Amino acid sequence: MRVALLRRSAPEPSHLTVVHAGTSYPVALRRRAAARRITLRVSSATGEIVLTLPERIDLAAAQRFAESHGAWIAARVAKLPERVAFLPGAVVPLRGVPHRILHWSTASGATVATAAPDGAPVIAVSCGEPHVARRVRDFLEAEARRDLTEAVARHAGALGRAPRRLTVRDTRSRWGSCSAAGHLNFSWRLIMAPPSVLDYLAAHEVSHLAEMNHSDRFWAIVARLYPGYDEPEAWLKRHGTELHRYG
């Protein structure tokens, strides 16, 4: 029997709401032409609840499906790591070392990683309090760009290949990527990991300038640029998701 596609005259909402045990959960709605069944997931990186469904499934059916999984949604959300906002007093890692955010002054000034009078590592921010979070984010991104630029230049020099462009963003699905045009892209969140992790990711993506695959030849290049890459790669698999809870 042929199933006709739904005709939707009005714009569809971007979210559904599921209520379980008195708590409301927003569920993002995603239609995919290639989807063959309804799927539900909770992103460990962002905490977003996403319902993906085929074009032919109507909204009422999607709502019933989501509501029938209310307990599952609640359980998954409860297991997510607590999010840490970039606010005064919060502790965030910088190059693998916990730093407390210190609102140093309300006068506009540079954000710096330094030590408090008691010797504890801090990220000192000088700005109006409403701007602290943005200043910390900008600082971490700038530090990531600096470290990645240095690491990429070093590994590219050893390989004899030069990338055409390097960008730093808040990527969610990948820590780094290399396009066929030689453009390298990295997550700024790598600056929160131990330095070996960022250095390995730089070597990994630079290796793609020679091999756009994950063949044995590719891994041989990675091993030449970064011997012992297994350890930082394992760190990312174990702890990488935790970096997304900051900010």
TrEMBL record:
Transmembrane segments: none
Record flagged with keyword Protease: yes
InterPro entries in alphabetical order: UTP_pyrophosphatase-like, YgjP-like_metallopeptidase
Residues covered by the YgjP-like metallopeptidase domain: 36-239
Keywords: Hydrolase, Metalloprotease, Protease
Pfam family, one: YgjP-like
MF terms (GO), sorted A to Z: metallopeptidase activity
PANTHER family membership: UNCHARACTERIZED PROTEIN YGJP (PTHR30399), UTP PYROPHOSPHATASE (PTHR30399:SF1)
Protein name in UniProt: SprT family zinc-dependent metalloprotease
Organism: Methylobacterium ajmalii
